[in-house]
Amino acid sequence: MWVKEGKNFTVEAYITANPHPVKISWKKEGSTKVLSRNLKLSLQNIRREQAGVYVVEATSLRMRENNTTEEVTGNTTVNVVVKYGPGDSVKLSPNLTTFEVDAGETVPPIACSAECEPACRYIWVQYYRTNTYRYRASTAVLNLGNASSSDVGIYMCRASNNVIGDNFEGNVTFELRVKYAPEIKSVTLNGYTGNPYSESVTITVTSIIRTYPNATITWGISHEKSLNSFLPLDSRYSANQTMTCTYDCEITAILTVFPPLCTDTGNKYSVYATNRKGNSTIKTTHYSNTIACTPRLANNAPMNQTYRTCEGAELNMTASFVSVPGPFISWHLFGTYLVEANNFRGSIAKTYIRVLNNSSCSDESTTALRPVPSVAATLPPNASSSKMNGPARIIMGSAIAFLMFKLKSKTKADSRRSCKGSINQVFGTNFQNGILGVEAEFIVTIIDIGEVAEGDTVNFTCTFTGTTTPTRSFFMIHPHSDDVSKYFVNSTLNPAIEYNNNTKNYTTTFTVLNVHMDRRFNYKNLFCSSLWSVKQKRLLVYYGPDDSKMELSGKETGIEGVSVSWKCAVSESNPAVNLTWYNGSTEFTPDSKPVVTSTDGNFKTEQEWKFIYTRDYSGSNVSCVATGYKNKRVTKSKQLQVNFAPELEVKGKNLYLIDKNTMKCYIDEGATLNLTCRMVAASPMTSAEWEGRGTDQLVITNVPKRLGSEMFNCKAQNSVDSTYLRVRFVVQYGPEFSNILDKSANEGDNITLNADILNANPLPVKITWRKVGSAKVLSTNLKLSLQNIRREQAGVYVVEATSLRMRENNTTEEVTGNTTVNVVVKYGPGDSVKLSSNLTTLEVDAGEPVPPVTCSADCHPACHYAWYRYYRTNIRIRTTPTAVLKLGNASSTDVGIYMCEAEAYVIGKNLGANVTFELRVKYAPEIKSVVLNEYRRNPYNDSFPITVTSIIRTYPNATITWGISHEKSLSSFLPLDSRYSANQTMTCTYDCEITAILTVFPPLCTDTGNKYSLYATNRKGNSTIKTTHYSVTVTCKPSLANDAPINQTYRTCEGAELNMTASFVSIPGPFISWFLLPNTNKYVHYHEGRGGGYTQIFYTTNYYIPVMNRHMFGTYLVKATNYRGVTKIYIQVLNSSCAVDSTTPYLHAKVWPGGSKCGFCATVSLKLVAGIHCLRHHQLYEEQKITKSISGW
Class assignment of domain 734-826? Predict the structure, then answer.
């Protein structure tokens, strides 16, 4: 009897007996526990552990002699099969999540298993990066064989089965990493369109490399004209790369060249990679680059050249140019030879060749000139005679063009005369008798026909360029075959011949027209040759795939469980095709790799798919798609048909499986039976029917008890096999309970359990409530009340009802039925919250790891956990989803009180509790702020103190050091003077916070521009120096600089000059006025100091009198004023006599920052018209010296 796990299950026995049984019991085979004492056995929420054979036993009392009785027992069995899906039971053997192996090593078999009933089917799938999954196997064991780079990825084993009409599935994964040598997937010339690049653009090349482990990338250059296939890079090249790693690593390497040069034309770019597992192959860009440029002289040749020869000798002149596209090259004779080269790029390159006449040369003399490179130009036959040999056009893609101009004698017998005539013509002295000839070496050219696909029509052209036409020539295909060589019959009979009067060259052209290209030309050689000159070119024709050359072979129809192999093959293509497999629209990759073979340029590609016929494949359209040249695709498809024996089921009421071929049907007496014999699955499909009835419906009305002695067969047959499902009947009756839903309550609540008898005849005479595992009767009615319930009272409760059925002779039979209810008691954590190691305080050094801290509590349902950090007044949640706090390496930001809060949701409310611990971290001081207090961008007053406050965090305690910094000082940490005082307060919780205050009183206006710095140190190290953001500005009323006296005296004489000076310290800048007492209403001199504003401190005023008159002697008042106040100085000027030629002694006072004075006397000789007077300068302040002295502040 089948039943799905988690469902309620009831089985009832039918008894035919006389006398009626006096005792009935249900037991599970192998156990003595009585599960039921009536004909019905109910199993609620059945689990897989309850599967097995159940025995029902009935005992009757038979009458014997002398009114004695004998117990007679009968029994029957029922096999209960519990069906269930894999759930989370899927596991791997060996039990792994990541497996790493070297390429070439064997990956051990990995077995996938799961608990399922019926047995699960298994499928292995490989996931790699963003690609769709790749099917790998349909068995429980994954056999990968020797590891390769294509095996890396996430492997998922999917286990599935069908449980009574429902599909169940579970899976498990592991990651496979393969260490392999780098593989270059692509190398691409970016922006390539077939057109030339410009020298002003940047050329980039991108390569994709797959590798594990990481690899080193090396770039190089290859050129078809170089014997070295990996030339080094010069300084114009730069390389960079990015890498993303999942199961292996993908490197995007980019090579950049700037500026590109036209001599780079023909370059291809190569790359290889290496790691600990080996080297990749060298991979090269498919296309070479072409760089367009204006013509210029090759190899930095000079613009001016000189040749020396003699009359009658041979002369060979050469000019070399760099140009893409090829230039037009022209020679002109204007006494000196001018060679010009130009192309469509616009600029013209020129070189001048001067030919000088030597005085003599012998008949056999030769001219020693530079070696002449091969001519790479085609010379038009209609060149203008005004030029020495006409323009020369260089073929496209040539980076260096050479032109040779050659003069020679006509015959050896007339060598002297001919040479003389030739040279005279070259020098421009004789144009009538000169013999001048242009001669080039024989050049054979096969015109490139480009990329050719099958079906194209092309023309083959071969040219010979030389001083004559070829006497014997060949233009043919090799190896020879009649089907392709027929185009070349008589190919050299009618050449086109052109003669260039200027160059004296013949161009002979052979052409084969309208050749229809097909694969017969592929890989053949095109030969064009004369007696001594040969040119050949390999032909490549791209073709395929073709429908007629592709085959998908394999048996389309089979029986489930049988192994089979399909093969997809393409016999002809160039290049090799890519094979892609599809199941419907889903791409998959067979386990075996494609096999590619090549013969003379033709590729054959094959791939085999091995699999086992399963019904999942039935009806699938499996396709193999071959993709070839220019994405030409050919598809071959087959439809799979998988056959299997019929699978049956019987649908109806109260059906239970005994074994896989037999069912029992329990039905009430007098009811109508209606059963359907149903086909679940079959291939080929067939029909099901009840044996002997010819229909799939079994209908019996008013069922009698005798129906239990009969058996009915559900039957189906197809070409694979026949299947039977037998059904036996038992008539049922007796008491039944309705199901009671599980009951949940909070601890401390009062709850009542109510039972309801659904069906019973007669009604029960006894009802009992018990807790499973206990014999104590808790109630004898349909209600059970549990007051102030505790967590210990949670569990399963059983209610049992007993009916007395009447039997013959007024005997009764006890028939018992029962049902259960699960009582769940919910409660919060209470005081059960605790931490691992029961810690309360944890102290670590900064940088050390903080051990994980685990929080746990006793809750039902399970608690949710949240961690909070309390730091002074801040709160921050660290982590919520787990009970484990992981802080990693400790830092100053981790200190504080950590609280774990455990919370459980119980019916209608949340219950929570918490536990805390303190984390202390020993770290070097950290200055959080240093602030100039009450700074509002307005100046400070020198009458009030200035304070600076700094906040320092530290643990343990730290020492604070203050200093001064000034933008005009070279020292960033000047010491403090006696006006400064420092104090600090400290509060310590988890660490210490120091509030350090620096006070300066009285501040001076000379403090203007100061900023204040500090640093801290403790046993863990030093903090950085931190400085106030703003500097101070201190206002003061004007005062005399450097403690100068208020009263000063100058002595001079009439007619002399006088220069009086006064210096002040003031912020803001002062108004300075000079008055000659007693008149204070009108100043005699004025100085504006406001321009200094709040940035200048020292101010000097000079009152200069060129010639002293008598009325100018007296007392002068100098007054300095700003909004803070006024300062006055009095200067007395006395008249002293001064003799002729006398000198004027005066005091020169020099003011230093410290305020000291030093004086000396000097002699100044003054010539005056009115006379000679003596000037005595009592005290003089030099503004320039003062300015220099304060520049250090």
Answer: mainly beta
User: Any idea which fold 179-291 has?
Assistant: Immunoglobulin-like (2.60.40)
- Hunting for tokens 């592709």 — which residue is that? 550
DSSP per residue, 482-543: HHHHGGGTTTTSS-EEEEETTTTEEEEEEEEEEEE--GGGTTPEEEEE-SS-EEEEE--EEB
- For the 1035-1190 domain, the top CATH level (class) is mainly beta
pLDDT at 382: 32
Mean pLDDT on 416-433: 32
- What are the boundaries of each domain within the chain? 1-83, 91-177, 179-291, 293-427, 462-480+491-541, 547-639, 646-653+661-732, 734-826, 834-920, 923-1034, 1035-1190
pLDDT tens track for 100-139: 999 999 999 999 999 999 899 999 998 887 666 777 788 8
pLDDT tens figures, 312-326: 888 888 888 888 888
Domain 293-427 has CATH 3.30.450.90: no
| Superfamily of domain covering 923-1034 | Immunoglobulins (2.60.40.10)
pLDDT at 375 over 50: no
Question: Could you tell me which residues come within 8 angstroms of residue 1052 by beta carbon, excluding any fewer than 6 positions away?
Answer: 1058, 1108, 1133, 1134, 1135, 1136, 1138, 1144, 1173, 1174, 1175, 1176, 1177
CA pair distance 634, 623, nearest whole angstrom = 10
Give the pLDDT score at 304: 84
Residue 658's pLDDT is 66
635-653: pLDDT as tens digits: 999 999 999 989 898 988 7
Q: Half-sphere exposure (CA, 13 Å, Cβ side) for 224?
A: 9
Helix (H, G, I), strand (E, B) or coil at 172: strand
**Res 546 pLDDT > 90:** yes
User: β-strands 1034-1040, 940-941: how paired?
Assistant: parallel
- Model confidence band, residue 805 (pLDDT cutoffs 50, 70, 90): low
Q: What is the CATH number of domain 834-920?
A: 2.60.40.10
Per the omega criterion (within 30 degrees of 0), is the bond before 479 cis?
A: yes
pLDDT confidence of 360, banded at 50, 70, 90?
low
CATH 2.60.40.10 fits 91-177, yes or no: yes
Tens digits of residue pLDDT in 722-764: 888 888 877 666 788 888 889 999 999 999 999 988 777 677 8
Domain covering 646-653+661-732 in this structure, CATH number: 2.60.40.10
pLDDT at 355 over 90: no
Give the rounded percent of residues in the chain with a pLDDT score beyond 90: 47
Contact between residue 506 and residue 467 where contact means Cβ atoms under 8 Å apart: yes
| Cα–Cα dist 21/12, whole Å | 15
**Fold identical between 91-177 and 293-427?**
yes
- CATH architecture of the domain with residue range 547-639: Sandwich (2.60)
What dihedral angle (degrees, nearest 10) is formed by the CA atoms of 1148, 1149, 1151, 1156? Answer: 140
Which H or E element spans position 736? Answer: strand 736-737
Alpha-carbon distance of 127 to 122, in angstroms, equals 16
| Percent of the chain whose pLDDT exceeds 70 | 84
Asked if 178 and 103 count as a contact pair (C-beta separation under 8 A), the reply is yes
CATH classification number, 1-83, choose in 3.30.470.20, 2.60.40.10, 3.40.50.620, 2.160.10.10: 2.60.40.10
β 812-826/795-806 pair status:
antiparallel
How many Cα atoms are found within 13 Å in the side-chain-facing hemisphere of 451? 9
Q: Is the bond preceding residue 684 a cis peptide, omega within 30 degrees?
A: yes
